[in-house]
Amino acid sequence: MADSLPTEFDVVIIGTGLPESILAAACSRIGQRVLHIDSRSYYGGNWASFSFSGLLTWLKEHQQNNDIGEESTVEWQDLIHETEEAISLRKKDETIQHTEAFCYASQDMEDNVEEVGALQKNPSSGVSSTFTEVLDSAGLPEDSQSSNFNSDEMSAKHTQKSDREISLEVTDVEESVEKEKYCGDKTCMHTVSDKDGNKDESKSTVEDNANQPIRNRITYLQIVKEGRRFNIDLVSKLLYSQGLLIDLLIKSDVSRYVEFKNVTRILAFREGKVEQVPCSRADVFNSKELTMVEKRMLMKFLTFCLEYEQHPDEYQAFRQCSFSEYLKTKKLTPNLQHFVLHSIAMTSESSCTTIDGLNAIKNFLQCLGRFGNTPFLFPLYGQGEIPQCFCRMCAVFGGIYCLRHKVQCFVVDKESGRCKAIIDHFGQRINAKYFIVEDSYLSEETCSNVQYKQISRAVLITDQSILKTDSDQQTSILIVPPAEPGACAVRVTELCSSTMTCMKDTYLVHLTCSSSKTAREDLESVVKKLFTPYTETEINKEELTKPRLLWALYFNMRDSSGISRSSYNGLPSNVYVCSGPDCGLGNEHAVKQAETLFQEIFPTEEFCPPPPNPEDIIFDGDDKQPESSGTNNVIVATLESSEEGKNQESPEKHLQN
Amino acid sequence: MQAPHKEHLYKLLVIGDLGVGKTSIIKRYVHQNFSSHYRATIGVDFALKVLHWDPETVVRLQLWDIAGQERFGNMTRVYYREAMGAFIVFDVTRPATFEAVAKWKNDLDSKLTLPNGKPVSVVLLANKCDQGKDVLMNNGLKMDQFCKEHGFVGWFETSAKENINIDEASRCLVKHILANECDLMESIEPDVVKPHLTSTKVASCSGCAKS
């Protein structure tokens, strides 16, 4: 029985995203009794990362438009006393929209392929495999469930539907016909392939070309088989090496749980070409793209930026100008202006003032060289590790964790207006003093006045780097400036297999921008500039210089950052709201939010102090002090809480599925 | 003293139901002491045990306790990540804890494999053997069979209280890990950045613009 859960806590935290997890660690670290719950089966909420099969499962869950068969939830209305009222929470996650997945890699494969080795079990395997196509609310014929088929038959069968889809979404109808196909794990995907008739031709072309320099042919089957090698983040972020998150990880010693790779290259996209941006002194002098004169100009300008505050005369007159205007006055060639604006300041052209730009450059330069040659770090196994590291810290200090645990409502005391408890999906009341909840759990009613922004995301699996060099293990960031003024720049992060986020011989590419339309409408043009769909390249050999797309996913994610507390209706004063991921490159927003909320709740306590020194270990009873020689990072104390002893710690009910 | 030629660092997990004696085993093994008082594990991340395996080899074992409160099997990936072996512990006086063993093993195998895709070595510990042997009596000779079926590399009757068989179980696990390791050399990751409290000083970098 899951009711072995204690019912008295100091802090209940709902949602396991980054700000909530930092708060959980911070609260448990100062001795608060923390209950940390998430309605999902995985840690991190929209900050999570998934194996390939895990991502397909996630995708399927979000493609199910209709309500997931409402689990038998205990009626809670009866549990509310006369002096109380309830604020119900949202039943369904609505932060992800417009999911569209495309498979370009060859799908010649046997049935029922599964990941090799351990499989991230499908948490919702009980749900039937029917689904609603998200793309096209007009819906699909019911026969889309027929599972095994021969692709020729299938294309004939689906012609009508394909036509309909094409008119909606595909621009070059000449080249591709879309059909959908069931893949190994029965997740619906679009297959983009040549026109039906070309299929055999293109195959024979490949065979003819067998003697040419071989690019690794990665099939969909391989991606599925090696699916565990992938750790695909829902948000794409990097850590500034002097940023708030790195500082917090180090200060709190949560850094012991996480390792990083340096981002090795900053790239720029100019005139249809990807180039490396020189950002360190060595880079500048080794750069082949820059002339001698340009090198001097750039060094001079960067040196000025590092201490720009001491030379107000240099920029005072341009305070009101945009940064790009200012750069034009600085004797920089267009080439350099582009590098400085897009790749170093990483700002969008229109909005950034001179001061903001100079500040951004200074910050960039100050982050250089702390750990490597670019200002950025990427966590091994993906950004999704980081919330879990804080959760581990929280658990080590006594926090209790429950995933797959739904909360039905807050119970508010009418008189004081304060929240007293939550009622979970078992109908159990759990009391606490403070409640922290992530935005997506709040009901429509609570959020009716809130205006949300959206983030457009794409996740690509490709077969080569967008800028090939001697080493195939580069981690790169590229800012693609907007095609038209007013639009948003697109941030591209390319991860190699040594970041432990993708299988060997592939790259995992994340695209991010703030949304103006659906993710695919916002990002597809950039994808097309940088990549070639796998199937087309077999015909157009001249296009082989571009990396090929093996698989692509587009989706929009709600950006609930920057919402003032007063926008929410009727929140009790002791309920605090954390936002989901923001669109920014760094994690500064999440860290600031966690620290601010912590200090609101516990104004006199220190935020995430380092764990106690091993020498301060206190053993209970008559135990001797441990021999210090044999210990490292061991802090043992004991908790005299009586309810602990008898509870079964069985994985049984929680591990099924 | 002659410097040993080889040093190995292995992360080992200690898994099992609440109250089967995971923390006691770790404390007995690492600190050579035992207390029947503690109930939950607070502030323990991992304990380090250094083994002088042979004149040429030093093995450092990081024993990771399941933080007492991750009780619903919701361990974070941080816990599993890069572990090389595990002990699954049950309490011989409580049959239910033995019934959970297969579930813990399945859970472990679903979340953790060696870099070569094989499951990690796991040793089964029948703990509190000083207090009676009910479960073992019932299962009798079937324990060997059980281990075979579920992929344990071995099993031991242990007592953290009486210090029975804990060193032996550990040696058994380490022996299997060492035997597996020869084909795992590729797993060593170059260029990994590990920021720590001690490394806060800014590295001087000749290639840096501000130098």
From TrEMBL, chain A:
GO molecular function: GDP-dissociation inhibitor activity; GTPase activator activity; transferase activity
Region (Disordered): 138-166, 188-210, 609-657
Keywords: Cytoplasm, GTPase activation, Transferase
Entries under Gene3D superfamilies matching the protein: FAD/NAD(P)-binding domain, Guanine Nucleotide Dissociation Inhibitor, domain 1, Guanine Nucleotide Dissociation Inhibitor, domain 2
Domain spans labelled RAE1/2: 455-583
Biased composition (Basic and acidic residues): 154-166, 188-206, 643-657
Tagged with keyword Cytoplasm: yes
GO cellular component terms listed in the entry, alphabetical order: cytosol; Rab-protein geranylgeranyltransferase complex
Primary localization: cytoplasm
Compositionally biased intervals (Polar residues): 143-153
Location of this chain's protein in the cell: Cytoplasm, Cytosol
Pfam hit, one: GDI
Highest taxon, organism lineage: Eukaryota
GO biological process, one term: intracellular protein transport
Biological role: Substrate-binding subunit (component A) of the Rab geranylgeranyltransferase (GGTase) complex. Binds unprenylated Rab proteins and presents the substrate peptide to the catalytic component B. The component A is thought to be regenerated by transferring its prenylated Rab back to the donor membrane.
Family membership: Belongs to the Rab GDI family.
PANTHER family reported in the protein's UniProt record: RAB GDP-DISSOCIATION INHIBITOR, RAB PROTEINS GERANYLGERANYLTRANSFERASE COMPONENT A 2
Name assigned to this protein: Rab proteins geranylgeranyltransferase component A
Protein species of origin: Macaca mulatta
Taxonomic lineage of the native organism: Eukaryota, Metazoa, Chordata, Craniata, Vertebrata
UniProtKB/TrEMBL annotation, chain B:
Stored InterPro entries: P-loop_NTPase (IPR027417), Rab29/Rab38/Rab32 (IPR030697), Small_GTP-bd (IPR005225), Small_GTPase (IPR001806)
GO CC aspect terms: early endosome; endomembrane system; lysosome; melanosome; melanosome membrane; mitochondria-associated endoplasmic reticulum membrane contact site; mitochondrion; phagocytic vesicle
Main location: membrane
Keywords per UniProt: GTP-binding, Lipoprotein, Membrane, Nucleotide-binding, Prenylation
MF terms in GO: AP-1 adaptor complex binding; AP-3 adaptor complex binding; BLOC-2 complex binding; GTP binding; GTP-dependent protein binding; GTPase activity
Pfam (any one): Ras
CDD domains found in the cross-reference section: Rab32_Rab38
Keyword Lipoprotein belongs to the record: yes
Cellular location(s): Endomembrane system; Membrane
Membrane topology: Lipid-anchor
SMART domains: RAB, RAN, RAS, RHO
One record GO biological process: endosome to melanosome transport
General function of this protein: The small GTPases Rab are key regulators in vesicle trafficking.
Family membership: Belongs to the small GTPase superfamily. Rab family.
Name of the protein in question: Ras-related protein Rab
Organism from which the protein derives: Macaca mulatta
Lineage: Eukaryota, Metazoa, Chordata, Craniata, Vertebrata
